Amino acid sequence: MDSAVVARNHVTILGSGTQTMLFAHGFGCSQQMWRFITPAFEDTYRLVLFDYVGSGASQLGAYNPERYANLNGYAQDVLDICSALELTDVIFVGHSVSCMIGLLASLKAPERFSRLIMIGPSPCYINDGVDYVGGFNRTDIEELLETMEKNYIGWANFLAPVVINDPTQPEMTQELNESFCSTDPLIARQFAQVTFLSDNRSDLAKSSIPVLILQASQDLIAPVEVGTYVHQRLRNSELAVLDAIGHCPHMSAPQETLQAMTAYLQRASNANTHGAVY
């Protein structure tokens, strides 16, 4: 085990199973956001959680603006952890931007991964003519990034309720707001730029790893059209549209999220047991 990587990314290992589930948080979040999901898997899987460099309880001193100038730097974080813990046959569970980070990691080292579970994925957040609905116009993103520079607290106060999109769960909005505000503003600004300006649409067709896409029915950050687009271009994927609303169903609707995950993994297990191609 590479203790330097474990410390750098504040890696946490839970569970008693043999196969590993690797949980990767979204922008402005931390591994703490998985706490409603992970207990259900502790008896059957080995769970690995971590914080990207610059997020949560990671080592901020390890942040390098050049390394993290695009999503490949974050994908390398994932691969570093896989290497440090000698992980193979990994079920990668990613939220939001981590869906594409996980995809990139799996393209670089497909031997490490058996399946991807994507919660609220988006390969491109910006609308592209009439052919692609990403959810935002480019001017929307530019204004968002400009607001981050001028008034970071105001930006957090604005974005958190947009992400959660559920006024009946103010505690979730408050938690996300506090998570945003606990992140170094300069690091958060660069991560936001990398997240919202990335375009990974061409990478989808390169993957053959089985994928489950979990799409909230009302998501202002990654609309249903985006989940459908991802499903249509990942040739070995399933799409489950949840009744949940907002961009964080693993927090706001953990039971429905868990039900979809466990049903998918059970089908995969049954298919493998009977020697079927899944």
What does this structure look like?
It is a single chain. This protein is α/β, with parallel strands linked by helices. The chain has one domain: Rossmann fold, CATH 3.40.50. It is built from 10 helices and 7 strands. The chain has helices at 3-8, 71-84, 97-108, 138-150, 152-164, 170-181, 185-197, 224-233, 249-252, 254-273; strands spanning 12-15, 20-24, 46-49, 90-95, 113-119, 211-218, 237-245. α3 (97-108) links the parallel β4 (90-95) and β5 (113-119). α2 packs across α3. The radius of gyration is 18 Å and the shape is globular. The chain starts with a helix and ends in a 5-residue tail after the last helix. Keywords: Hydrolase.
Short description:
The chain is of the alpha/beta class and 278 residues long.
What topology does this entry show?
Blueprint: H1 3-8, E1 12-15, E2 20-24, E3 46-49, H2 71-84, E4 90-95, H3 97-108, E5 113-119, H4 138-150, H5 152-164, H6 170-181, H7 185-197, E6 211-218, H8 224-233, E7 237-245, H9 249-252, H10 254-273
Helix pairs in contact: 2-3, 4-5, 4-7, 5-6
